[in-house]
What we know:
By secondary structure, the chain is of the alpha/beta class. The protein has eleven helices and eleven strands.
Amino acid sequence: MHLTRRVITQLIVFALVSSVAAAIMMFQYVRLPELLFGSGHYKVAVQLPSTGGLYARGNVTYRGTEVGRVQGVELTDTGVRATLLLRSDVKIPSNLDAQVHSQSAVGEQSIALLPRDATSPPLENGDVIPLSRTTVPPDINDLLDATNRGLEAIPQQNLKTAIDESYTALAGLGPDLARLGRGGSTLGIDARKNLDSLLVLIDRSQPVLNSQIDTSDSIQAWAAHLADITQSLQRHDDSLRGVLQRSQPALDELNNLLDRVQPTLPVLLANLVSINKVAITYQANLEQILVLLPEGASIIQGVNVANRYTKQGYRGSYLSFNLNLNLPPPCTTGFLPATQQRTPADVDYPDRAAGDVYCRVPQDSPFNVRGARNLPCETVPGKRAPTVKMCESPENYVPLNDGFNWKGDPNATLSGQPIPQVAPPAPAAPPLAVTGYDPSSGTYVGPDGRVHQQSDLAEDARAPKDWRNLLLPRSGP
């Protein structure tokens, strides 16, 4: 048989094309080196409770990408063992789940590898994915049997009604159901990401639930009280509606009031803060005043009782003016010495003497019983002292000298307490046994610190005066 040159060329081209196609088929599709030698791949075993329709040469995917094939499926004493042949160039974390899925409606099964994290070491040759991390789809036969049993539970004459009612209930809810499904999937994914926190929450929820059980009586009482309040609101529904309807004008008036006082309201509130601190400190005293105020008002009103329903009732209050002059005598202990006291005739206003000036007789003395020495200490109940500093300190009040008069040097004290002094413009001269007097009235200050009057020293000295002159004002220049 004689072959022409053209035929020989065609045969050579056909042989080359056939060889290339066979090579592509063996290396690309059949992957003969991979099947015979496993080159570029490594093996991983997967333990399954059942095959779930999985077969040899099924696909293996990782994050939706094909990374290998199922080399074989074999039975074991505890279930099924599938051997996976995975590509070496793809690093797959070892902390993962293996799930058998169906790729098509005709039942083409594959294994999907779903990593739990991206920080675990990659899978290596010979690793085993345990049964606790694998799942298989439910058997289609069991699903069909369950569907048949569900349909048989519905009476045949009512099946059409059930289908029609289901259509009516779900008609037009496709987008909502899809959104519900997507939300459920997102919720499941987020729950999977926070699985450890959810497990801890579930484990530690028992004390909270137990506390609800322990306080069940209180919760029931609270619910009962809430029911009473609700019933009361229901009974007074008309009144409540009236309050809500009429509250708007009142709120408008309140708003207008706040607008008018807005310029001065911050200053007022700032001042109230200071007053509030003082009120808190003297809270007990304010309460006592509020308790005694009604009784005191009734006592004051009692001065009108004597002339009530009488002919003299128009005269008003009935009072008795009994003059008790110098009873008790005035307190001079603790004040400036007699030589430094100003006469009553002076009309200037010098600076106040430094220090605390108050009557320093014993606290149980009948003189000036309402003086500063008997002020109650707010923060120390039962203690009385003239100053806040003494109240807050362990120091107790000590009267000057014997508590009734000066002894010896008027600038010295037996108790060691300081007394107020007026600084003289020049060194003070020794005290003299003389004193000045007012020539217009004949008054002068004696060594005992008291004011005396001698009428015959006055410029307009007249005849001796009797006791009535003490009650009448002085007439004339």
